[in-house]
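Form 7-S
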Amino acid sequence: MSEPSGGETVPEMRRDHATHASRLSPFASPVIRSLGLIAYEPIWQAMRDFTMQRTADTPDELWLVQHPPVYTLGIAARVQHLPRIDNGIPVVKTDRGGQITYHGPGQPVVYLLLDMKRHGLSVRPLVRLMENAVIDLLGEYGVAASGRVDAPGVYAGNAKVAALGLRIRNGCCYHGVALNADMDLSPFRAIDPCGYPGLAVTQTRDLGITDTPDTVGDKLIEHLITGLQTH
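Output:
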C-alpha cells in the first residue's frame, strides 16, 4: 500500500483467508484482512488505492478494523452536521455517501472492496445485503432489528446500531458497514447521527450481547460472505 499523507503507513495486512481462481466468479471467497485498531485516514487512502489499481482479475477483499475516535463526513454532509462541541475528536471529510457518523474503539467496521459487476449487484441491493447481514447477525442472539427505507442502516427498535456508507468507482465499491458493539457512545451526542436530529444510537452490549467486538466483527463478515454467495 502507498504511504498516505502525514507519513503514517498502513501496517502489513495479515491474510486470514483467500480463494484464488483463474477466472474469478461471484462465488470465490473474498480475501479477509483483520487489521485491528488503525487510524481512519490511512485506511481510507488504502481503500482508494486498492480500488483504483484493481483489475477484472483482482480478488474481492473484506477489511475488518476498528478506529481511534474520529468523526467522518460523507458527501451529503452540511455545515449544520458538524459536532456541536469541541471534544477534541478529529473530523475527516471523506468520499462515502451519507452524512456524519462517529467511529471509535469497540466498533467493528467491515470495509467491502467488491467488484459489483462480478456479483451482479447495484447500490440498493448491496445496501440491503449489508443491512440484512447485520439483521441476521443480531437475530442469532435473539435481537430483533430492521432497516429503514428513509434512513439506511440497522435499527433495534428506534435506536441505530449500525451505519452504512459506500463509494462506487468503475463498478467497484469501497467503504462499508460499522456496527456499534462495546464502545463509548457519548461522542454521538455531539452530532446528529447520519444527519438525523435526536436519532438514538445503541450497541450490541446494551442489547444483551456479551461477545467481544472482535467476535461480533468476525460473525458479521461470515454473514456478509453468505449474503454475497446467496443473493
